[in-house]
What we know:
The complex is a heterodimer. Chain A is an all-alpha fold. Chain A has helices at residues 3-7, 10-16, 28-60, 76-86, 97-113, 144-165, 169-200, 205-210, 217-220, 222-235, 247-250, 260-285, 293-298, 307-329, 335-365, 370-406, 438-441, 446-461; strands spanning 127-129, 132-134. In chain A, β1 (127-129) and β2 form a beta hairpin. The longest helix of chain A is centred in the C-terminal third of the chain and has 37 residues, at 370-406. Chain B is mainly α. Chain B has eight helices and no strands. Mean pLDDT of chain B is 77; it is low at 1-6 and 182-205. Chain B: It catalyses: a quinone + NADH + 5 H(+)(in) = a quinol + NAD(+) + 4 H(+)(out). Chain B: It holds the Pfam family Oxidored_q3.
Amino acid sequence: xxxxxxxxxxxxxxxxxxxxxxxxxxxxxxxxxxxxxxxxxxxxxxxxxxxxxxxxxxxxxxxxxxxxxxxxxxxxxxxxxxxxxxxxxxxxxxxxxxxxxxxxxxxxxxxxxxxxxxxxxxxxxxxxxxxxxxxxxxxxxxxxxxxxxxxxxxxxxxxxxxxxxxxxxxxxxxxxxxxxxxxxxxxxxxxxxxxxxxxxxxxxxxxxxxxxxxxxxxxxxxxxxxxxxxxxxxxxxxxxxxxxxxxxxxxxxxxxxxxxxxxxxxxxxxxxxxxxxxxxxxxxxxxxxxxxxxxxxxxxxxxxxxxxxxxxxxxxxxxxxxxxxxxxxxxxxxxxxxxxxxxxxxxxxxxxxxxxxxxxxxxxxxxxxxxxxxxxxxxxxxxxxxxxxxxxxxxxxxxxxxxxxxxxxxxxxxxxxxxxxxxxxxxxxxxxxxxxxxxxxxxxxxxxxxxxxxxxxxxxxx
Amino acid sequence: xxxxxxxxxxxxxxxxxxxxxxxxxxxxxxxxxxxxxxxxxxxxxxxxxxxxxxxxxxxxxxxxxxxxxxxxxxxxxxxxxxxxxxxxxxxxxxxxxxxxxxxxxxxxxxxxxxxxxxxxxxxxxxxxxxxxxxxxxxxxxxxxxxxxxxxxxxxxxxxxxxxxxxxxxxxxxxxxxxxxxxxxxxxxxxxxxxxxxxxxxxxxx
Lengths: 462, 205
């Protein structure tokens, strides 16, 4: 069955021969050293980024932030970790014990695993450790990015099982939310990766960085990059997409019933995931370990030796700052808005973009010149836009007429049944009255003030 | 059943074969526990173990691409959706006494028959065919893609149509109850009570 198929594909096999021969030749002690380095890199970045997050959010809110432990409060997260380990370890009586204890472990381990394929430097044995020349990467696979995606999807189990095994309502809701969230955002994420594969001809991370030598994929594939950035925030359960642990709605979400070191493990998993997705974004779109453009223009050695480690660290830190910035700036999204964004915006947009990229690549493979490609693609996009505009115009006209005729009959009563209710399908909210400017209030007497207050209350209720 | 020639592997060919058999036994055990356990969510978790075992088997056969796709699709999506469904129906913690149906023996017979058919088909197909393991690794993404989209494109498309049909069927089944509910709603709106209480009543009745 398989033999005739393969024997007729010599050309394909020639293409498939990716040069990953440099990996997997390290002595055993070097493999252990590298694994420990990956672990330590993730841990240290996490310890730093927790303090950094609290500091940055504090500055954004005109506070000082942690400043007691160590210089500039740098040892704060270490102290927090020790404190958490010394706390009482509770196991809820109604919990499913085995799964309850398994959940934080399942959440933490996959978070670290993706680091195995992140390239910290070029793959041509440029550095030497104790006299052994080696690439700056633990290992690489021909399907490296697929491995990252698979490992990340296993990490969901930690959250889901924590929510279920706690045997309590809020964690269950948090677990449900995170399941739906991660599944729907993983699709958009996978499609945005596919565009990168089309350009790099490979799924191995070292190969992807190697093909970005003159242009980073953030320039070539801006839409994929934006889709990935949005879905990576959704995937890590961070603000403004932190619905599984929304403290205003679900107490603590999936980790409500956890304490002590188990809670610390969830915290660790969240931050390691942040570091991991930042490292993936760097590798796939931001040139990996490559120095940014103006530096390479006057310093040829920037991409050689140990220097790449510096560039990738800086890029990861900038992305982590972006995470913190988002948290300090944006309010949490509502659940339905979040799902709408995932299914109705991100997935269709990245799908259309992928088709576009594939078309351009196919035309390039057929040796059409650049102008003709621009003509075809630009023409296609314009036609599509025009079509959607026309459809939109006609659809709007069709909908407005019944809406106008049906509106007066179905009035919305916000206090139906004696207590405030949301509008049912087909009903619309009455407009929220605007608050009066403060200047007016000082001129009126006491009774008028009371009236204004009443009106405001009504507005709030509506 | 050897690792790709020319690439340094951790295990000798015999070691790979022994590991293959051991993982196979573990996978079979996990599958048996999946269908016999009385705890719903634990059954789903044992299913994860079984599917993960398959992924390890693929890895041992050097089919990296298929192995990670197996993890991504089956472990990462299908069973997560299964758990999602279980949690929506408030999967209880502990044993559910009604987890066993009386059809267990029929199911066993069907399973054994299906397994026998599959084994027979595979054995018959490969009776006189020898797979050449001397060349490059045949589990890579490019080779798999080329085989899939050149030689097996018709079954592939037929499968995708089948999935689409299943999707449409699921939507039709879930929509079947909707008109009845709407008529109940409009009836209950004639009642003096309005808003949420009437809707809740309609849902209960």
